[in-house]
From TrEMBL:
Its cofactor is Mg(2+). The keyword Kinase does not apply. Transmembrane segments: none annotated. SUPFAM superfamilies: ApbE-like. One of its GO terms (molecular function) is transferase activity. Gene3D superfamilies: ApbE-like domains (3.10.520.10). This is FAD:protein FMN transferase. It catalyses: L-threonyl-[protein] + FAD = FMN-L-threonyl-[protein] + AMP + H(+). Keywords: FAD, Flavoprotein, Magnesium, Metal-binding, Transferase. It comes from Amycolatopsis oliviviridis. Its EC number is 2.7.1.180.
Amino acid sequence: MGLPVSVDVRAGGELAGHAIDGVFGWLREVDARFSTFKADSEVRRYDRGELAPSELSDDLLEVLSLCDHYERLSGGAFTARLPGRRLDPNAVVKGWAVQRAASLLLAEGLDVFCINAGGDVVTSGEPEPGRAWRVGIRHPERPDAVCAVVESSGGAVATSAEYERGAHILDGRTGRPPAGLLSVTVTADDLVTADSLATAAFAMGTEGIAWVAAQPGCQVLIVDAKRQVHRSPGLRLA
């Protein structure tokens, strides 16, 4: 998927090993089917007109529906269809795929785990009695530091920022990189919501601060370009 993925499962023995193999098998399948870089992926074939909408898999239809939802919700700032560019639903795909991976672990009876996909995290249960998972939020300007540590024991944490990839998030309304924010972190019940809202808010620039904070069921930690921090009162910091 073009990013490091780690899976930390507590207990389970051989069952855990088998389930983790299933998780990575699923993620490799997602990469093959949804990659915008592989010419034979379902996404690329659909984008070239080689597949009709009636021929698409249920998974791709679900992902495209989610992309449309967040495009409407963000007023067009979030989009998988920038003019002049390939169809690119990856802003939804990663969160969707990793949340599905978490479901695979839960289906095997494994309910204490942490999946980390390039800094976007899904957690379940408590690694130690009475203690939540601790998720570090990378500092937007210092790769060797964190700017906060969030507690999570059954939900998702996602961060959108430029980091090494530079200006890879574009405002769908203008086609240009947004200005005003250094990083947006969102916590929510699932990674589809957290990741998509974080991406949309970053794409909106400074207007995304109030917009994402008003979304139901999420908490935010935002660093703007003036190095000011905006945090929801209910965000669980370690």
